[in-house]
UniProtKB/TrEMBL annotation:
Record Pfam families: NAD_Gly3P_dh_C (PF07479), NAD_Gly3P_dh_N (PF01210)
Source organism phylogeny: Bacteria, Bacillati, Cyanobacteriota, Cyanophyceae, Desertifilales
Role summary: Catalyzes the reduction of the glycolytic intermediate dihydroxyacetone phosphate (DHAP) to sn-glycerol 3-phosphate (G3P), the key precursor for phospholipid synthesis.
Keyword list, A-Z: Cytoplasm, Lipid biosynthesis, Lipid metabolism, NAD, NADP, Nucleotide-binding, Oxidoreductase, Phospholipid biosynthesis, Phospholipid metabolism
Residue ranges constituting the Glycerol-3-phosphate dehydrogenase NAD-dependent C-terminal domain according to the UniProt record: 155-295
Protein's name in the database: Glycerol-3-phosphate dehydrogenase [NAD(P)+]
Signal peptide as annotated in the record: none
Binding of substrate, residues: K83, R230, N231
All residue ranges annotated as the Glycerol-3-phosphate dehydrogenase NAD-dependent N-terminal domain in the record: 7-36, 41-135
The keyword Amino-acid biosynthesis is assigned to this record: no
UniProt-annotated binding residues for sn-glycerol 3-phosphate: K83, G111, K166, D219, S229, R230, N231
GO biological process, one term: glycerol-3-phosphate biosynthetic process
InterPro entries registered for this protein in UniProt: 6-PGluconate_DH-like_C_sf, 6PGD_dom2, G3P_DH_NAD-dep, G3P_DH_NAD-dep_C, G3P_DH_NAD-dep_N, NAD(P)-bd_dom_sf
């Protein structure tokens, strides 16, 4: 069977370009759209059998709106690879895509996928998740290669939240390393961070076991330990005393955790869900506290069972 697809990738940043490389390596016909690029959006997305979105969170709603005005095949599959939460309605990217395209299958793609390593040709794995299993399997077949091992999953919300919530924890991990707090502290931070992700994710309807997979624990291990992660870099530099504005002005690309933290804390406090590490990350980002003070706050919380 000829399984070569016409694929549109919207968002030509670090992740969009890495995904384009993976898809081209599989000999699919790939067109990349960016708001500053040469191709009109219609020319890129209208012929596509699969539309992959790698725009950063702040662009998702407007790009989905622009695509809604175009003429697509009813069978077009959407794949969302963005990791973030919409500040306006607190929706995930896949919920936004689904609201604009209620009849199309939406697949979430997330995992430990640092784009620079992918661009170097290094191997990695990811998860594609959807309530529409056939669509997830199509995307799995289309993107799988000796460099990119793709697993399917039936919990898109869990997969999406894993990728999104760990960005906030990667800021904490960067700060932990920036303060040189040691391996024990880092292990405690990540383990309790995972508990936090599971607590909020399951409250919102995701399955706990999903967070032990590639898009949860897997992506935490990658981003919380790598200077290639922009979120980690952000935390590391905050710990060195730089301001958020100074860091963002020089950071290459998007650190979604900086925006996710505020939405996350707002929702968690409305819903009475304790997420102390993310809470301190948000205070650090707001300039309300230093990284060292955040550590003290976390260490001196009421003692309790694990
Ligand atoms: N770079 C990476 O290693 C990975 C990134 N991601 C996620 O993918 C998303 C994009 O990340 P990167 O490509 O690294 O960021 P980036 O900053 O390199 O690129 C972001 C892209 O979004 C576009 N964009 C932003 N606002 C827009 C708007 N209003 N309208 C149209 N386009 C808009 C930009 O033009 C750019 O092409 C983020 O949510 C990130 O968390 C996920 C996995 C890996
Ligand atoms: O999500 C990522 C890798 O899976 C990329 O992490 P950063 O956005 O922190 O660079």
């Amino acid at each position: 069977m000829n399984d070569f697809k016409t694929i549109a990738i919207v968002g030509a940043g670090a992740w969009g370009q890495a995904l384009a490389r993976l898809a081209r390596d599989r000999h699919h016909q790939v067109k990349l759209w960016s708001r500053r690029g040469i191709y009109p959006l219609a020319e890129v997305v209208e012929p596509a059998e699969i539309i992959i979105s790698a725009v950063s969170m702040k662009g998702v709603r407007s790009v989905a709106q622009q695509i809604q005005a175009l003429s697509l095949s009813p069978h077009t599959i959407f794949v969302t690879a963005t990791k973030g939460l919409d500040p306006e309605k607190a929706e995930t990217p896949s919920q936004i895509w689904q609201s604009f395209f209620p009849r199309h299958p939406i697949v979430v793609l997330a995992g430990p996928n640092l784009s620079k390593e992918i661009q170097q040709g290094l191997p990695c794995a990811t998860t594609v998740a959807s309530t529409h299993l056939e669509a997830a399997e199509t995307v799995q077949r289309v993107l799988s290669s000796p460099q990119f091992r793709v697993y399917t999953n039936a919990d898109p919300l869990g997969v999406e939240l894993g990728g999104t919530l760990k960005n906030v924890l990667a800021i904490a991990a960067g700060a932990c390393d920036g303060l040189q707090l040691g391996t024990n502290a880092k292990a405690a931070l990540l383990t309790r961070g995972l508990t936090e992700m599971i607590r909020i994710g399951t409250y919102w309807g995701a399955q706990a076991e999903t967070f032990y997979g590639l898009s949860g624990l897997g992506d935490m291990l990658a981003t919380c330990n790598s200077p290639l992660s922009r979120n980690y870099q952000l935390g590391y530099q905050l710990a060195q005393g730089k301001t958020l504005d100074e860091i963002l002005a020089k950071l290459e690309g998007t650190a979604e955790g900086a925006n996710t933290a505020g939405v996350l804390i707002r929702l968690a406090s409305e819903q009475n869900i304790p997420i102390p590490i993310s809470y301190q990350v948000n205070r650090l980002l707001q300039g309300e506290i230093t990284a060292r003070e955040a550590v003290t706050e976390l260490m001196l919380r009421d003692i309790k069972p694990e």
